[in-house]
Write a structure and sequence with these properties.
Blueprint lengths: L1 H24 L13 E5 L3 E2 L5 H18 L4 E5 H36 L3 H39 L3 E10 L15 H8 L3 E10 L2 E10 L4 E11 L3 H17 L4 E8 L1 H5 L2 E4 L2 E2 L6 E4 L2 E8 L6 E7 L4 E7 L7 E7 L4 E5 L2 E6 L13 E4 L5 E7 L18 E6 L9 E5 L6 H40 L5 H37 L4 E2 L5 H12 L1
Parallel strand pairs: 1-4, 1-5, 2-5, 8-14, 15-21, 20-22
Antiparallel strand pairs: 3-4, 5-6, 6-7, 8-11, 9-10, 9-12, 12-13, 15-18, 16-17, 16-19, 19-20
Length: 536
């Protein structure tokens, strides 16, 4: 009885020590830094220096949030060799901790076999199997340590620098919220727990209505600093302050050499009010050079009274780019547009309604007899929809079906303030008309293709008979017959070819009816004729 109690006590102590050993070696679940998962970025509220007002405390949260909003989707990150090393060492370390847990468990299992198994033969076999597992785990730990030392030595030989791996910068939280720090934990521990690749932290010092902000980027899992930047600004201009901080942080986030873009904006009048936006961020006013990170960026150039120019371009081939931007002026004014052949209806210019034509008693509500169209210096693509309640102007057509639409085009060169233009509207061909012309062109082409081989064959036969006649083996009558047949086939092929060209022209002409009719400057006598028609 005493022996049994001793065995149970020993077994309890053994299980307790095993549980303690497992708890000692057990580690919290760690995130993985696998290639292709994106470069995960977040930020923490900036630290405050001394006593701060409510506005400064609010800025400590708003500034890093604004930075995250502005960097979203606009950056990529090229992994450095140091980051690659950190990631691999982190994975090896995670693997070692897991192996440690398994090794502790196997050792406790082996020790428990002494009391658990009473059969000596079975116990010996089970202990041997457990020893084998323990040896395999110990060997795995040794290989892990050797691989770690090899990686460190390889990095020491190569030095730091960019690798060929590029990852898209991904925000940790889609709503741009900051990383929450549990009580008693620092930013580094929270970053590792979230699996972050980059973390923006900083500090704020206030001077009345101004604040000095220092932002710093740390890369994980290594936790080393990629650089910091300090900027001073007004407390009520946090967005501009965040823009300036981000301009300096972007090259550090991208981990590439900065790219300089030199702008040449013309004319001089546009340069005076020019504003340059890169990825939605306004650059410094008056600056003709902007610094961006390696990669694709969207550039927008704006000036008062000019059309905005924008382009997306991959700035990856050089560190210096020259961008010439000729600005186009927005023209002001109106011109009159007369529609011929459309009846009554409503006109549109660039998807905007310009008015109804011709209006009550042939006049527009404004007293004009033509539709006024606004000039903007760009080509105008318009549409005229017939009302179906009147005849075509200048024709004997009793009326036009309601909803019949016409398209027209006004070139920029014709647009001049106070000018009068005209458009001859023509009914667009429907699908049946186009298909009919297409089918006939196919038929003509088929006839031509069938006639050509017959013409070549007849001509070849004629040449063969003619060669035989020259050698004295053919009669004159055979030569005449071959010549007549060859001429007939040649004429047939020519007629078929002419028929094909005729049908092709009809098909192209019919299809061209789908194109918008171009506006033109009407002659004075044509305008007088139109006025007379309206009065009638």
């Amino acid at each position: 009885m005493m022996t049994r109690l001793l065995k149970l006590s020993a077994l309890f102590l053994l299980l307790y020590s095993a549980a303690c050993g497992a708890a000692f070696c057990q580690v919290e679940e760690r995130p993985s830094y696998e290639e292709g998962g994106g470069w995960l970025l977040s930020a923490v509220p900036f630290e405050l220096s001394g006593k701060s007002s409510q506005a400064v405390r609010k800025a400590a949260v708003d500034i890093p949030t604004l930075i995250l909003e502005k960097v979203a989707g606009n950056a990529s990150h090229v992994l450095s060799l140091a980051e690659n090393l950190d990631r691999q060492i982190f994975q090896l370390q995670t693997e070692r901790l897991s192996l440690c847990l398994q090794l502790s468990r196997e050792r406790k299992v082996r020790d428990g076999l002494v009391l658990k198994e009473s059969n000596q033969r079975k116990r010996k076999k089970q202990i041997s199997e457990a020893e084998k597992k323990i040896a395999e785990l110990e060997e795995s730990i040794r290989r892990n340590l050797t691989e770690t030392e090899t990686l460190k030595a390889r990095y020491d030989d190569a030095g730091d620098g960019p690798s060929i791996i590029e990852e898209v910068t991904v925000l940790d939280k889609k709503d741009f919220s900051l990383l929450e720090l549990p009580d008693g934990s620092d930013a580094g521990q929270a970053a590792l727990a979230r699996g972050l690749s980059g973390l923006i932290s900083g500090s704020i010092e206030s001077f009345g209505g101004f604040i000095s902000v220092t932002a710093e980027l740390h890369c994980y899992p290594g936790g080393w600093s990629a650089g910091s930047v300090t900027e001073v600004g007004e407390l009520n201009e946090l967005s501009e302050l965040a823009d300036n901080l981000l301009v300096a942080l972007i090259p550090k986030i991208a981990n590439t050499m900065p790219v300089q873009i030199h702008f040449s904006v013309s004319p001089e009048e546009a340069l005076a009010s020019c504003q340059i936006f890169i990825d939605g961020i306004l650059q410094k006013e008056g600056a003709d050079t902007a610094t961006v990170s390696y990669g694709e960026h969207k550039v927008e150039v704006c000036a008062e009274g000019y059309f905005t120019k924008s382009v997306s371009y991959p700035f990856t081939e050089s560190q210096h780019y020259s961008m010439v931007v000729p600005m186009e002026k927005v023209l002001d004014g109106t011109f009159d547009l007369t529609f011929i052949g459309g009846g009554n209806g409503t006109a549109y210019a660039n998807a905007r309604e310009t008015g109804s034509f011709p209006g009550e008693l042939g006049f527009l509500p404004s007293g004009r007899r033509n539709l006024p169209v606004t000039i903007n210096g760009k080509p105008i693509l318009g549409r005229f929809i017939a009302a179906g309640d009147g005849a075509e102007l200048g024709t004997e057509d009793p009326g036009i079906a309601a909803g019949t639409d016409y398209y027209y085009y006004v070139a920029p060169g014709l647009q001049a303030d106070g000018s009068t233009l005209a458009v001859k509207l023509k009914k667009r061909p429907d699908e049946k008309e186009i298909n009919d012309r297409r089918i006939w062109s196919y038929r003509a082409y088929s006839a031509f293709m069938l006639a050509l081989p017959a013409a070549f064959l007849a001509y070849g036969n004629y040449m063969e008979v003619m060669d035989g006649f020259n050698k004295g083996g053919e009669l004159q009558g055979n030569v005449d017959n071959a010549a007549d047949f060859s001429n007939a086939m040649t004429i047939t092929a020519a007629v078929a070819g002419g028929f094909f060209l005729f049908e092709l022209f009809r098909y192209v002409h019919k299809v061209s009816g789908l194109l918008p009719q171009e506006a033109y400057i009407p002659k004075e006598n044509e305008l007088i004729k139109l006025e007379d028609l309206r009065e009638q």
